């Protein structure tokens, strides 16, 4: 917000007057010592800012580089784990097929043993009947 002084005239209209520009010395009179002190303070702030930036910026670059290396390492590790998962899934598929094959073989063996025992039982019964019939 700018406040602009207005000067009243004798006529009915008001004339807007532009504000008078003040020189620095009129607005804030400073003696030479105060001016030099302000300059020294500004110089000190500038040096402090440069010192901070010369410390902070390289450390930010180092941190960024470290984070980049960590991200690359994590990506490589993730890729290795992905390959390992694929290998393990292939192994699981192979083992499931092996289990299915062994179940079929076990079922066939049970059927064979069952048939064999049934045949032995039939033969035993036949022999027993022949021995009793004599």
Task: Write a structural description.
- The chain is mainly α and 134 residues long.
- Helix content is 79%, strand content 3%.
- It contains two helices and two strands; from the N terminus they run ββαα.
- The chain has helices at 24-27, 32-133; strands spanning 6-7, 15-16.
- It has a two-stranded antiparallel ribbon.
- Strand 1 (6-7) and strand 2 form a beta hairpin.
- The chain is rod-shaped and about 150 Å long.
- 0% of the residues are buried.
- The mean pLDDT is 86.
List the helices and strands and how they pair.
Elements: E1 6-7, E2 15-16, H1 24-27, H2 32-133
**How much is the average pLDDT?**
86
Straight-line N-to-C gap: 135 Å
Number of DSSP E strands: 2
The fraction of residues in strands falls at under 5%
Assembly form of the protein: single chain
- How do the strands of the widest beta sheet line up side by side? 1-2
The total of helices stands at: 2
Shape: rod-shaped
H/E series: EEHH
Q: How is the main sheet built? A: 2 strands, antiparallel
Low-confidence runs of at least 5 consecutive residues: none
Helix content bin: over 70%
Instruction: Work out the radius of gyration.
Output: 51 Å
Instruction: State the secondary-structure class.
Output: mainly alpha
